[in-house]
Amino acid sequence: AQSVTQLDSHVSVSEGTPVLLRCNYSSSYSPSLFWYVQHPNKGLQLLLKYTSAATLVKGINGFEAEFKKSETSFHLTKPSAHMSDAAEYFCVVRDTGGGNKLTFGTGTQLKVEL
Amino acid sequence: DAGVTQSPTHLIKTRGQQVTLRCSPISGHKSVSWYQQVLGQGPQFIFQYYEKEERGRGNFPDRFSARQFPNYSSELNVNALLLGDSALYLCASSLVGSGSATNTGELFFGEGSRLTVL
Description:
The structure holds two protein chains of two kinds. Chain A has no helices and twelve strands. In chain A, strands 2, 5, 6, 10, 11 and 12 form a six-stranded mixed beta sheet that branches. Chain A is mainly beta. The radius of gyration of chain A is 14 Å and the shape is globular. The termini of chain A are far apart. Helix content of chain B is 0%, strand content 48%. Chain B is built from no helices and eleven strands. In chain B, the strands form two sheets. In chain B, strands 2, 4, 5, 6, 9, 10 and 11 form a seven-stranded mixed beta sheet that branches. Chain B is globular, with a radius of gyration of 14 Å. The mean pLDDT of chain B is 91. Chains A and B meet through strand 6 and strand 11 of A and strand 4, strand 5, strand 9 and strand 10 of B.
């Protein structure tokens, strides 16, 4: 079975400083990996996706993630945090058994301080 | 363009009651999936429907059921509600039923139906 592990439940950064949200995956096959963001009382929004094309994936709002097979990691980064980035972030893997089943990590709450 | 719409947005039920949640996918999308998100956790897969057929089921009891209609909208039903069923129920739609090398089958989520069971 595939799974993802988000290494930090809470991350706090100052506005204008870099963001790093860590995610490791476990998969027997080349995985399809995603990062979703959830703002308070809102649904989930796709930030970016990796599907075995380029290992460095660029997403919306300045976020990007790098797929590293040797480290089984898919960390999310952003060069400069903005107050509006404060939200819950989920690392997600698609099940290889067919269909659209997604397995979510436990989430990382990002706090951005002035 | 309208996104995924869910109704109701909030509802309160008591233990033992039954609830029906509704979802309208993005126009042209043929697949609908349901997820349960308990407070403080990531969403958990419940069901996927594609072209009105069940294509996947998560580890949920038989009290949970769903169906998809000819217009691709969907309903999630939960019977004999328990306190632990209190959660945000998310619906997601996608163009196709599965991902592939050429189509990632990206899921678009609605804002959810928040169910509170007292």
